[in-house]
Amino acid sequence: MTSLLQILLLLLGVARFFIFAHFIMSWLISFDVLNVRQPLVGQIWYTLQRILDPIYRPIRNVLPSMGGIDLSPIVALIAIEIIRIVLINNAAAFY
């Protein structure tokens, strides 16, 4: 059962990495450092959007409109961290 806990923590870490990568890329695209018309950048960007959209969409439906600011990545990171803390604190249930 310990391996199940480790697998869940690994998946949370991968999700956190994808969210950070998407967040950083969105800023780089906004400031014209990266161009989505470049094939590699566009492919990475749209792949990250397809992966993270099912996570962001329910959060965006709940959050009020903040103009041009999207707070869903921050809320998703907080939720992932809460799940990680709960899993670690209840690790005894996996033994």
Description:
The chain has 3 helices and no strands. With 95 residues, the protein is mostly helical. The mean pLDDT is 93.
Describe the sheet with the most strands. Answer: none
- State the low-pLDDT regions, or none: none
Helix content: over 70%
Number of helices in the DSSP assignment: 3
Dominant shape: globular
Q: Summarize model confidence as the mean pLDDT.
A: 93
Q: Element order, helices and strands?
A: HHH
Cα-based radius of gyration, to the nearest Å:
16 Å
Give the key terms.
globular, 3 helices, mainly alpha, 95 residues, 0% strand
Topology:
Layout: H1 2-30, H2 39-62, H3 72-89
Describe the structure in brief.
It is globular, with a radius of gyration of 16 Å. It contains 3 helices and no strands. Helices cover 75% and strands 0% of the residues.
